[in-house]
Design goal:
This protein is mostly helical. It contains four helices and two strands; from the N terminus they run αβαβαα. Strands 1-2 form a two-stranded parallel ribbon.
Length: about 110
């Protein structure tokens, strides 16, 4: 799956109710961006479904990008953000998505 945290939770609750989280199936969630717009990935919402969601999430494996704290990465990330804003390509209120994408692409380039 690749969706916001609320959608992932709804899906996991649905598959759990169909008894598909008993170990016969494994579910993967891919978080492409380390961004608050996708939620915090938690099953907990403070509602009556929390207990059920906790059980459902035991079958969920989440793949995320590693966020480094190296100065080189931070400098590169800031440079990408400035370049995009300067070019007028994006109103960059939440530029975490941009820096992650740029880093991934540059990591794949020869």
């Amino acid at each position: 799956m690749c969706a916001g945290a609320d959608v992932v939770r709804d899906i996991m609750l649905a598959v759990h109710r169909r008894r598909l989280t008993n170990g016969s199936y494994i579910f993967f969630n891919i978080e492409l961006f380390n961004s608050s717009s996708y939620g915090n990935g938690s099953w907990k919402r403070g509602d009556r479904y929390d207990s059920e969601a906790r059980q459902a999430y035991s079958a969920l494996n989440t793949v995320t990008l590693l966020r480094t704290v190296k100065p080189e990465f931070e400098n590169f990330s800031l440079e990408v953000k400035r370049s995009i804003q300067k070019a007028g390509l994006l109103d960059c209120d939440d530029c975490d998505n941009v820096s992650t994408s740029g880093t991934l692409n540059s990591g794949l380039a020869p």
